[in-house]
């Protein structure tokens, strides 16, 4: 069913906002105000990306873990024959690898349970209402503009700090790995776009058993696809 209400003025264009500028700053539409509020709330949580897109965050971990499990299984199958006859030391190594593989399988089961239980985020509930509205195309374009407007002043200083740390490390060696890792993690938290909204919605609909299709038309995606195991 088409959801409750989408903030009005979804069709307010950039020129219209410019005409409504107050003190030299464009005035946000109701749609922009709501998106900005939700993004600000996610940032206050300390984990922006996983707060906005919880299913995507879990899905990335399960995808990585599946690859590790697949690689470990191949190693065990190949190693049991190639390393046969290695004595007690080889047996201990195989036992340790088998235990690690079992731990990964258990972790996969926990992640699958989390994926099934993770709630739809507030921003995704808002996005789904926008997509269900009659003004979907113009509204999504407007959301994209507001998203970039919100991200730019936050991510540009981080990227500059990242470059400074990397330059210092290369030139003088006085930037620590901890400093570099910290700023890289902060950059990663803001590494999302409108594609991230479509991917999260695809995961939500796949979980609900409705499958993909109309919510994620190719014309609205830039080539980034969700991987489903």
Provide a descriptive summary of the structure in words:
- The longest helix is centred in the last third of the chain and has 36 residues, at 136-171.
- Helix 2 (30-44) runs parallel beside helix 7 (136-171).
- The chain has helices at residues 14-19, 30-44, 48-52, 54-82, 87-117, 122-132, 136-171, 177-189, 194-207.
- It is flat, with a radius of gyration of 23 Å.
- It is 70% helix and 0% strand.
- It is mostly helical and 229 residues long.
Task: Draw up the topology in text.
Elements: H1 14-19, H2 30-44, H3 48-52, H4 54-82, H5 87-117, H6 122-132, H7 136-171, H8 177-189, H9 194-207
Beta content? under 5%
Helix content estimate: 55-70%
Quick one: overall form? flat
| Major β-sheet profile | none
Radius of gyration, taken over Cα atoms and rounded to an integer in Å: 23 Å
Uncertain regions spanning at least 5 consecutive residues: 8-23, 210-229
Write down the secondary-structure element order.
HHHHHHHHH
Summarize the structure.
Helix content is 70%, strand content 0%.
Task: List the keywords.
mainly alpha; 0% strand; 229 residues
């Amino acid at each position: 069913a088409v959801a409750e209400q989408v903030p009005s003025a979804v069709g307010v264009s950039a020129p219209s906002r410019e005409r409504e500028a107050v003190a030299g700053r464009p005035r946000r539409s109701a749609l922009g105000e709501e998106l900005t509020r939700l993004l600000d709330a996610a940032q206050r949580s300390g984990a922006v990306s996983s707060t906005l897109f919880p299913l995507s965050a879990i899905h990335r971990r399960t995808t990585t873990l599946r690859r590790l499990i697949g690689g470990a299984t191949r190693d065990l199958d190949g190693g049991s024959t190639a390393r046969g006859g290695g004595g007690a030391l080889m047996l201990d190594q195989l036992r340790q690898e088998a235990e690690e593989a079992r731990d990964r399988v258990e972790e996969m089961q926990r992640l699958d349970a989390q994926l099934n239980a993770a709630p739809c985020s507030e921003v995704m509930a808002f996005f789904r209402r926008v997509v269900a509205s009659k003004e979907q195309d113009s509204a999504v374009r407007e959301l994209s503009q507001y998203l970039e407007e919100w991200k730019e002043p936050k991510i540009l200083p981080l990227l500059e700090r990242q470059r400074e740390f990397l330059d210092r490390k290369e030139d003088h060696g006085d930037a620590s790995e901890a400093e570099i890792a910290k700023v890289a993690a902060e950059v990663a938290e803001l590494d999302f776009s409108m594609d991230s909204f479509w991917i999260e919605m695809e995961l939500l609909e796949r979980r609900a058993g409705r499958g993909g299709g109309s919510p994620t038309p190719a014309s609205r995606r830039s080539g980034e696809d969700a991987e489903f195991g």
